[in-house]
Amino acid sequence: MNIADLRKSYEKAELSESASNANPLLQFSKWLEEAISSEVPEPNAMTVATVGSDLRPSTRVVLIKGYDERGIVWYTNYASRKGQELAGNPFAALQFHWVELERVVRIEGVVEKVSDAESDEYFHSRPLDSRIGAWASPQSQVIEGRTVLVTNAARYGAQFLLQPPRPPHWGGYRLKPERWEFWQGRKSRLHDRLRYTAQADGGWLRERLAP
To answer: In this structure, are 67 and 157 located in the same domain?
Structure first.
């Protein structure tokens, strides 16, 4: 099989200026709700892109855990590679790809940590094994084998029992959008792309981009 010959015609929907919301957050909410109701696999999965001090970009997939007018929220280990890169360069990009709906959403902006209260609230809502896992995994560090994780989980499970506190190195990030792009696949590769750019008055400039 020649992968260069793999092709798909995108014909499920369209994205017009008249049918899209002037507020990108509301447009995102509409598309996310449609992805959830359509039961696409992991509609809450998003790619996070950061850039390190060596100017090399890196990506990973995380799960969105909240969104409102303040931004997009996810939780992770602050000592991980992405945490270290965000500490040095707070600008990042997010991408949602809902393959079955032939849609992509891209979001760019500055990232900040959420409050301790928000991180505590979410951490204590997680299943017990996930809370123990946050202690057990030295995320992004080299380890000798899976036994390290299993041993750590057993140790912290015995130490904290049913009430593990939130680790000081674990919490949430919020990306404050400065730019959004909504992509809808269309026939003949003439896709619809609408970009929203934040304006000084708090509004959004909506523009159509060539595919």
So the answer is: no
